[in-house]
Model the fold of this input.
Amino acid sequence: MYYIGIDVGGMTIKAGIVDENGKLYIKDAVPTLPERHYSEIVRDMAELCKSIAAKQGIDITEIAGVGMGIPGTINSKAGVITYSNNINFEKVPIVKEFGKYIKCPVYINNDANAAALGEAKFGSGKGSRDVVFVTLGTGVGTGIITEGILLEGKMGAGAEGGHIALKMGGELCSCGKRGCWEAYASATAIIRQTRKAMELHPESLMNAEAEKEGKVSGRTAFNAAKKGDVAAKKVVDNYIKYVAEGIISMVNLFRPDYVLIGGGISNEGDWLMQKIQRRVNRYSFGGHRNPKVYVRKAVLGNDAGIYGAAALAMKK
Ligand SMILES: [Zn+2]
Done:
């Protein structure tokens, strides 16, 4: 059977046709242009679906279901986007609106939740019923599947692991509270930590790296650390501890089989996963007496949003 997954982002809307074996047949994208009224954006989404189906030679009535992964608080049961800051949506009845164009079952969920489902069904957590997905990007997003159930909380407003407390009264978070995990472990946070270290250590290679890139990025400290820069190594070591600290809390709460890490920072790859793995082994509750939790890089990459959204439609 064919399913369509739609990955709704602030810049682009991507859609792809996927089957239940995880084969991605075709994908395409259109600009979101988020300043428009939602009815226009939803119309574009429906047209994108019709266009990829037509290009693939599939009649739109053959699509068994459509899933959408959307950033923000998503009321999946009501089919309503409660609030999405990236696309300026507030109380948008997106399932009903989309139904004006395409008649098939439509499922929506938060993008990190959808990505967790996609990874559990087709990616690094394939076959597992207990997966915690963590995305280290502009923010820290989490998706939690426990005993096969995607945790959403009331009206989809839960499972926000990025905002668990790491340090009371600490750094200011995007949510308005201080000391959240996100304020220490996001790409935004490592950029801030890198800038601070660059000021303190003008001799550090981080300055040259940033100049080469044209900006301070999430990679700057990692690149300089690999060349042996002491100040950069300290930034990276601290950052890894911050990431691991939050993951250990997630492990203690949910004890999954896998913690899967996605987002730009995860491109650092295996050595980063191994460092986090060692801290998780050492510090999670019960130590070696409790079931081992494997820390892995999420593998679906750029198409994770499409796979995850399609998986939303398949789970019913
Ligand atoms: Zn927060």
Q: What stands out?
A: The chain has a mean pLDDT of 95. Residues 163, 173, 175, 177, 180, 182 surround zinc ion (CB under 6 Å). The chain has ten helices and 13 strands. The longest strand covers residues 12-19.
